[in-house]
Amino acid sequence: MTLLARLASDVQLMFRRPPRQQYGAICYRVNKKSGDAEVLLMTSRDTGRWVIPKGWPMTGKCAHEVAAQEAFEEAGVRGTVETETLGAYSYPKVLRDGVQVACKVQVYALEVTDMAKNFKEKGERRIEWVSFDEAAGRVREPELRGLLLAFKRKMTERLAAIAVKQGPAGKQIPAE
User: Fold this and answer.
1) What is the mean pLDDT of the chain?
2) Pair 30, 121: CB distance under 8 Å
3) Most buried pick, 25, 125, 128, 149, via CB within 10 A?
């Protein structure tokens, strides 16, 4: 490596900013007819790619509360958000001025219990409920794909445990 190339590389490293923090939600529900878990995906407003609700930190709100707030503002869904993170993924965000910044999104699970008819970004995005496998196939970020598939495994285990507890024909088995 030439001295000039090395200097250029060092200067780039000096000015590289740490990733900007965002918080997001994997919004899910259990389909009453099929019993399968579904995940909510929506399109981004700028590029139309498939994403999960996410946003910047908010003063006075914990990370999981921000994830829940963004899910409501962007997709009109409310529910129970878990306080423990599922993990994180990174992606390059293009800001309004055209500058590209690295973002790291801390992700929380949100079990959807209600869908609002009106919400802040209604009509600005497409929203779809899909299987976890379909969602993993649609998102571009490999780390988000991994989080979706890991959460699918977790949900499969949860649903199997509930099915065992309920016994045949969905009847609750009494505790001994």
Assistant:
1) 87
2) no
3) 25
For residue 27, which of 147, 142, 170, 159 has the smallest C-alpha distance? 147
Q: Tokens 């309920």 identify what position?
A: 166
pLDDT digits (tens, 9 = 90+) for 123-162: 899 999 999 999 999 999 999 999 999 999 999 888 888 7
Cβ atoms of 107 and 25 within 8 Å: the answer is yes
Largest CA distance in the chain: 75
Between CA 27 and CA 134, with CA 114 as vertex, the angle to 5 degrees is 30
pTM of the model: 0.82
Instruction: Tell me which residue has tokens 């445990």.
Output: 161
End-to-end Cα spacing for the chain = 72
Radius of gyration of the chain (CA): 20
Pairing label, strands 54-55, 50-51:
unpaired
Q: Which pair of tokens denotes residue 164?
A: 């065992």
For 41, other C-beta atoms within 10 Å of its C-beta total 24
